[in-house]
Known about the structure:
It is built from 19 helices and eleven strands. With about 450 residues, it is of the alpha/beta class. It has a five-stranded mixed β-sheet. Strands 8-9-7-10 form a four-stranded mixed β-sheet, sandwiched between helices. Strands 4-5 form a two-stranded antiparallel sheet. Helix 8 packs parallel to helix 10 and helix 18 runs antiparallel to helix 19.
Amino acid sequence: MRSTSHFALCCTAASSLFIAAAGAQAETTITVATVNNGDMIRMQGLMGDFNAKHPDIKVNWVTLEENVLRQKVTTDIATKGGQYDVMTIGTYEVPIWGKQGWLVSLDDLPASWDVNDLLPPIRDGLTVDGKLYAAPFYGESSMTMYRADLMKKAGLKMPNAPTWEFIEKAARAMTNKSAGVYGICLRGKAGWGENMAFITAMSNSFGARWFDMKWNPQFDTPQWKETLATYLSLMHKYGPPGASSNGFNENLALFQQGKCGMWIDATVAASFVTDPKNSKVAKHVGFALAPHKEGIKKNGNWLWAWTLAIPAGTKQVAAAKTFIEWATSKDYLKLVASKEGWANVPPGTRTSLYKNPQYAKVPFARITLESIESADPTHPSVQEVPYVGVQFVAIPEFQGIATAVGQQFSAALAGTESADQALSASQSLTKREMTKAGYYK
Length: 441
């Protein structure tokens, strides 16, 4: 009897070891590269839900500043480095990389994920030849956020669709530098997705374009001169000091601290500037469309989605898809709402969210949707263009060219060169790179 018990005990122990070993072998680790924006940081704080549902998948995070993220994921996927199993990329990269075969198609996500619920403008930007190559985590356009209390104090009323002329008037009226309040905060940090996202969208509203129909750069045109002159004038007269170092996150912090009368930037910022836990001016924030120039009916708003995509070189496709399905699902939106409230749900991705009566009560829901739906990537300028894209040009060369142009414009903002010098240099470098790329026959 004793020996039998001993044998049974040994067998039980061996079985336990075998099960433990099998479990350890079954665990899959994936590495997710993402941007250090608020919604992505919040997702990492909600990973308990994912871990409970998928204990066999371990997620490692690599969280980076926007310009650094773009550089690292581009280098990794182009060289087949294999550092990441899930990448946070945007509407610019997805169609280019999908066409090159660098991304895994997401067409086989479960029916419950409901691909048809994605907002058409967002879904279209992530689709190549009928195949979806990335899932949107949040979608955005851009709009005008402003201090309603300062606007009222100035005796002004913000229109739903302001002109740049009104923006200048309001910025002048709201600026009180001795009190540390600046009439307007805009992106100045160099980067194709930083200052150039804003300035390119702004240029559309002045009737400018990056290229004519023969791919000749257009920085020597009156429309670009007026765009840059208006931008620099606003920032030099009414903007905060050191603005050439300010990107999305820096301006968000300034606005939350009550330092900005107006901020024209991504619609996704709305939940952060109205959050009383982090924003000193939460109860005073108003919203309007991105500005347009008097006489031109083209608002300076962009169209973008931060998305989750799978590089073709990963060996963890199944686990990566499981994570993406969780992070971009309707259930994830409900999870955020239950923990943080509906105002903090990642916006701009699903039709069902904007039909939800609870979300409809959020003060910026309507104008976010209106901004997204009004952006037209196929007709970004009032003039005809040979490219697609609102705040970017959807060609592989744009990333490098626009980064260099962004450095010129940032230098003009910092005062180390004139607007004319920045435009002239941008014209020359763009022409040179497009010639090297073979755009002129």
